[in-house]
Amino acid sequence: MLHTVPDPSFQCRQRLAESLRREQMDWALIGAGPGFSYFTGRRPIITERLLVLLVSAEGEACLLAPLLQAPLYQEIEGVEVFTWADGEDAIARLAEILNRNQPQRIAVNDEFYSGFLLPLQAQSTARFLRGQDVIDAARCQKQPEEIVGLQHAAKAIDRVWQRFCDSCGALAGQTEFALRDRIRHLMQQEGFSEISWIDVGAGANGASSLHHGSEKVIASDEPVVFDFAGCLDGYYGDICRVAITGNIPADYQALYDIVLHAQEAAFQQIRPGVSAESIDLTARRIIAQAGYGDYFTHRTGHGIGVAAHETPWIVKGNVQPLGLNMVFSIEPGIYLPQRWGVRIEDIVIVTAEGAQRLTQSPRLIVVIDAAAEAVSYAN
Amino acid sequence: MLHTVPDPSFQCRQRLAESLRREQMDWALIGAGPGFSYFTGRRPIITERLLVLLVSAEGEACLLAPLLQAPLYQEIEGVEVFTWADGEDAIARLAEILNRNQPQRIAVNDEFYSGFLLPLQAQSTARFLRGQDVIDAARCQKQPEEIVGLQHAAKAIDRVWQRFCDSCGALAGQTEFALRDRIRHLMQQEGFSEISWIDVGAGANGASSLHHGSEKVIASDEPVVFDFAGCLDGYYGDICRVAITGNIPADYQALYDIVLHAQEAAFQQIRPGVSAESIDLTARRIIAQAGYGDYFTHRTGHGIGVAAHETPWIVKGNVQPLGLNMVFSIEPGIYLPQRWGVRIEDIVIVTAEGAQRLTQSPRLIVVIDAAAEAVSYAN
């Protein structure tokens, strides 16, 4: 589905041009994907047809679009639109535009298809370089309008979770798919134009961080892991929480508390200048010290903005320092195969003093009572 | 959403290996996308994490997957699974696997991200070549199980359209978005696990082949163009039809009849050995002869299978001969800016004698009566 994206795109392109000059790049080449949204303010249609934004080191911008899509990308301040029609050689057209100023080095964004890049390389003497640090990294530090958009999405995600817990009735006896469908319905009601995923994993199914639900009927005393994300008015929200009907097994509560501790410690570690990997290490150390290091099988978090996943990556090896107004997830987990899993995910923003959570849902296991359909939070 | 794909994947990989040998390629490198589904029988999760299938000219296959996704890709006959964990260098791991047998030429599928290809090129002395003709073209000629899957999807699309026309009531007075939501609901009821698009364009909005709907309230005597597509059990269906409440303006009927003629003539032209572009030319000639050549702004059709759009492209410049069991759309259109548009789309399969339509919905404007909510077809 199409939706508009708030448009600070002119300023974004000027900052990109500065980065290009600093890195001695002549062009940035940005294919259809979140980067295109960010630098144009228009959400692209991603298809097999070539659609690309070009930004020069001088700050000039143009885009090359399929003729039939051209109306979607008109009237972007300072962006000239070139088109190609079905049956024409789109790559030759792109090469012609790029080669005009005899470029030496061209930065390419990650999502640009190899099917476009390979024939383009054959039609240009320029060096094509991975532009992640120049192009994609520009999206890290959020502008004021973007922060508003991310807060808006986070609040809507919180409302979906609250309304779900209030209305779903006893989890026990329902299937994972039925719960997924209820969340989808609530997300649509809240105005999400894209649903990125809705993962519902009960009991052992919660031991995979990628379980998309099944016909499994949920039992009493069985913890259920919910993770859902989507796009609202151009910005993404994402959350992970656990709920249960019946009693929380003591073993599970103990596991949960370790993850809660790790999540809180990672959150407290955040401040400008601290490296992304140090946040990951903080969460990982606590889980490892509790004896579950081998069962925390993914990075601690990911940036979020005009994409559900974007830089900064909160992962070992990423020495990038965190900066003011970066927005990302903190979502440590423990997954015991054939048994169960825990993950707690919040979206947070880096502030001058440390960090704030955009996600406001309580971080406790939600106990949904079978009889009264009343919701309580386990302490 | 995940769903399984019927698995003729072992045979597919063997045919691919033959093509690689014929083209003197050492490896095919297939990123997350429809090609991955086709050659593994598993639908990939497309993210920023490297997931790739490798098929050698000897027919050996392996895949490199993110550790946390690995459970999704286990137990594919004849495919060894390697993993990489968050924080590890996935590209170095891929280069290590590829470089083992000192390859000279590596075919890359179109959807592989440049963000993976560029650093890989720097870590290998092999030549990376666009693999479209070797890899993606393999999907053209459908296997028996695939034809069953495509028939199944086409019938479900027909049922959605029929049920929509039977139940939507008068179009006049409703918004485009309301009609879109009704179609979405029916598609979900029919079991579509992915909705690719639902375009609803009334009056002048029908003059764009990419109008995704709006809050516009539909008027009486205003033609509405509907185009929707989605994935059912691993295969895609796609249709375009027109409906109206009230009377069909004589000018519109005349325009519609030209497109209907072009669509039928293109369909009649199909047989094994005829070039893809000749089908496009047939439709285009009829529309041009009627004086609307400049208003048919896109190719005549696209292949369909494990992707909504795939080869063969029914477009000028594609001299590829059509072959038995190729499946594609035939969807000529006329778009008069600020006025209205017409498009009629069927999915067809090439047979020994010519072609058959998988789409069975009547190709006439559906008149939905305001009073009786009765549906009739205009002749």
Mind explaining what this structure looks like?
- The structure is a homodimer of 379-residue chains.
- Chain A is of the alpha+beta class and 379 residues long.
- Chain A has two domains: 9-137, 3-Layer(aba) Sandwich (Creatine Amidinohydrolase, Chain A, domain 1), CATH 3.40.350.10; 144-367, Creatinase/methionine aminopeptidase superfamily (Creatine Amidinohydrolase, Alpha-Beta Complex).
- In chain A, 29% of the residues lie in helices and 24% in strands.
- Chain A has eight helices and 18 strands.
- In chain A, helix 7 packs antiparallel against helix 8 (276-289).
- Chain A is elongated and about 70 Å long.
- The two termini of chain A are 41 Å apart.
- Chain A binds chain B through residues 1-2, 31, 45, 47-48, 67-69, 71-72, 85-89, 108-119, 128-130, 132, 208-210, 212, 280, 297-299, 309-310, 315-317, and chain B through 1-2, 31, 45, 47-48, 67-69, 71-72, 85-87, 89, 108-119, 128-130, 132, 208-210, 212, 280, 297-299, 309-310, 315-317.
